[in-house]
Amino acid sequence: MSSNLVETLIGAVVLAVAGFFLAFAYSSAGMRGTTAGYELHARFNRADGLVVGGDVRMSGIKVGTITGQALDPKTYDAVITFSVDGRYQLPDDSAAKIASEGLLGGNYLSIEPGGSDVNLKAGDSVKFTQGSVNLMDLIGQAIFSATSGPANGSGNGEKAKAQ
């Protein structure tokens, strides 16, 4: 009888600790209900690394969430749908760009507010956008531009002068 009581108490403690960890994970993951906001759209030539549920940030602070991704069948542009917290009214000349959290981090949608007196309304599109940059393409360009410089004949002129 005594061992059953001890096992029950240990089980209760394990369940309480598991519940504490679940509550902590829920609160720190930012999965609480979203505040009322408005939905906007932006077109990008490349949208690498953006995921539905990803952050929309302004000045490094999360102000919204990416709610959808689609490919325009006519222009083949990536159309990103995102919501912005209703407390933040974006001017209609604001810009959206896909930024990286770091070398190994994910991407997020960064909003640069404009200076217009007219604000974007629900369903409007951000006109000024900058797509993501492919890191492998940049590395390839750096490597090939560094190796193609001396091979273009810069050393041949010196040999001809010496002869």
Brief characterization of the structure:
This protein has 163 residues and is of the alpha/beta class. The protein has three helices and eight strands.
Explain this structure:
The protein is of the alpha/beta class and 163 residues long. Helix content is 29%, strand content 29%. It contains 3 helices and 8 strands. The chain has helices at 2-28, 135-148, 156-162; strands at residues 37-44, 55-58, 61-71, 78-85, 95-100, 107-112, 125-126, 128-130. An 8-stranded mixed β-sheet has the order 7-1-4-3-2-6-5-8, with no helix packed on it. The protein is extended and about 75 Å long. 15% of the residues are buried.
Helical run tally: 3
Looking across the biggest beta sheet, what order are the strands in? Answer: 7-1-4-3-2-6-5-8
**Compute the gyration radius: what is it?**
26 Å
The share of residues in extended strands comes to: 25-35%
How far the N terminus sits from the C terminus, by CA atoms, comes to 104 Å
Major beta sheet summary? 8 strands, mixed
Number of strands: 8
Q: What is the helical fraction, as a range of percent?
A: 25-40%
Indicate the overall shape.
extended
SSE pattern, N- to C-terminal:
HEEEEEEEEHH
Low-confidence blocks of residues: 153-163
